[in-house]
Amino acid sequence: MPLPPVFYHYFRTPLPYTRTLLLQEKIHQLQLAARRSSSHHDILLLLEHRPVYTSGRRQTEQELHAERARLTSIGAEFSIAARGGQLTYHGPGQLVGYPLLDLARTSPPIGIRDYICIMQKMIQSYLLRTHEITHVPSDNTGVFLDPVTKIASIGVQVRHRLTTHGFAMNVTKEPLEWFAQVVACGLVDVKAGCITEAKGKNVRVEDVVPGIVDAFGTSYGRDMVKLCPQNAGELGEAILALEEDALAAGGWLKAPSPT
Q: Which residues are catalytic?
């Protein structure tokens, strides 16, 4: 029996991080409730965030207190997330993908390691086929252009075999200066790279969305269907409300403020 399609939605305005976490949690609860009748949908959210530093679930508030104060002083938000991984940055110029999938749809179910491995290979395949950008192998999760340049990160959470969080891929140069303020993902001597820098020509986030959607569908063996929020019930209402919040939030800093 073929797997149902994955419904995807691309937000064109950078989103506040905390509100986006709430949307993921709402979708997770909707999926849990509808799974009893096998009527739940798998979703892929594609977006940019407003400037924000996030930490993983293994880092404590006590450990991060000084960093929170420093990083908010340069103009970014700060949030502790429930994903794996350590401190990282999200912001405009970076495409973030949040797949909300039921890993139990297949028989046997997809394991967490396999799920992450497929995601990493999906990004690598997209970069090579669309931009002729090659990666180098690494013992660390994510996609590296060379041993000290990382272009994409992965951090996921799985509860009841339902996924949240996902991947982030740097497209423009805008995120790089923000990344330079921290030791991202705990990797000393590793810097952030981006598609624009690797290609030597400007690439916009909206330019990469169609290719990532296609690569995602191919990698996970799923048809991809564009979501129409107006016809998606409670899920669609939540998406439209978040888009309104993003527009109301106004502009954002393009670079860190001097301290």
A: 185
